[in-house]
């Protein structure tokens, strides 16, 4: 049970990191699109 809990924590951390990475990429893309729209 202890092993399962520790691996569960690792999986959760991995998912959180993935979400953060996606958010960062999305924000970068959003900024680029917004700047492009302002130039038009």
Model description:
The chain has 40 residues and is mainly α. The protein has one domain. 95% of the residues lie in helices and 0% in strands. It is built from one helix and no strands. It has one helix at 2-39. The longest helix has 38 residues, at 2-39. The mean pLDDT is 88.
Topology:
Blueprint: H1 2-39
What is this structure, in a nutshell?
With 40 residues, the protein is an all-alpha fold. The chain contains one helix and no strands.
Shape, principal axes of CA atoms: rod-shaped
The multimeric state of the shown protein is single chain
CA gyration radius, whole angstroms: 17 Å
SSE run? H
Helix content: over 70%
The tally of beta strands, per DSSP, is 0
Our count of helices gives 1
Strand content: under 5%
Organism: Salicibibacter halophilus
Protein name: Z-ring formation inhibitor MciZ
InterPro entries: MciZ (IPR025177)
Task: Provide tags for this entry.
Z-ring formation inhibitor MciZ; 95% helix; 40 residues; mainly alpha; MciZ; rod-shaped
């Amino acid at each position: 049970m202890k092993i399962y809990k520790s691996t569960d924590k690792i999986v959760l951390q991995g998912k959180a990191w993935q979400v953060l990475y996606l958010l960062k990429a999305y924000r970068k893309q959003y900024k680029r699109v917004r700047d492009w729209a302002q130039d038009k």
